[in-house]
Amino acid sequence: MNAELNKKHEPRTIATKDVYLTLREMILSFELYPGSRVTETELADLFQVSRTPVREALLRLENEGHLTIRPKQGCFIKQIDIDELSEYYKVRTALEKAAIEDACNHMPKEELERLLKLWNPEKRPKKLSAGAMEEKDESFHIALALGGGNSTLVRYLQDVNDHIRIIRRVDFQDPERVQRTYQEHYEILLAILDREMVKARALMGQHIQRSQDAAKALTLTQLARKKTMANRFAT
């Protein structure tokens, strides 16, 4: 078993159906360091399950772009490419602004008011994990795209989100960033409700840029910290 996995984890018993979710969480939280190697046998021993659910989980994670399976070599967690992620953010910004236009033209007032209640900064839940916040944030952006009625745009946006999820997750480990996200979402919704398309597009562009900048800085910091820990375990 590789040094990091061996040192950091004791065997854990989990349900077969949870193997995928647990592995995915370990990757998104950098518990499995980008570029590190794991095998079916190691993971089966770790989770106290047979190799079959591990193999199925690994194949699913490979299809989602989280890792690469190399026959007779093992599985390698995908490296973080900041430049590639920046390109995805550019695409995301264009898609989100298009979604804003459609939402301003077609999204029902009732749906916008429902979202306003969910994103009222004064009613933000006091305890919300980074994973839960990431899911809630993603649902907000998808809801705007759905509200505009463009199903093709929704599919493209979901695909982009799949590629940048690992960097978005770390953005919500800072309580101030969570509060800021609530405030920014609320302001965007108000602009859409008033059908102020230019303002709403500008707010969305600023929102995504701030999120990207904060997440990039945190990701690089976490990667450096994880790499230091991995090197200590290896010595």
In words, what does this structure look like?
With 235 residues, this protein is mostly helical. It folds into two domains: 3-79, Arc Repressor Mutant, subunit A (Orthogonal Bundle); 82-222, Four Helix Bundle (Hemerythrin (Met), subunit A). The protein is built from ten helices and three strands, in the order ααβααββαααααα. It has a three-stranded antiparallel beta sheet with strand order 1-3-2. Strand 2 (67-70) and strand 3 form a beta hairpin. Helix 5 (82-106) packs across helix 7 (130-148) and helix 7 (130-148) packs antiparallel against helix 8 (151-171).
H/E series, N to C? HHEHHEEHHHHHH
Tell me the overall shape. Answer: elongated
- Count of discrete domains: 2
State the oligomer. Answer: single chain
Kindly name the structural category. mainly alpha
CATH topology of the largest domain: the name is Four Helix Bundle (Hemerythrin (Met), subunit A)
| Overall radius of gyration | 20 Å
Taking the alpha carbons of the first and last residues, their distance comes to 15 Å
Helical content class: over 70%
Number of strands: 3
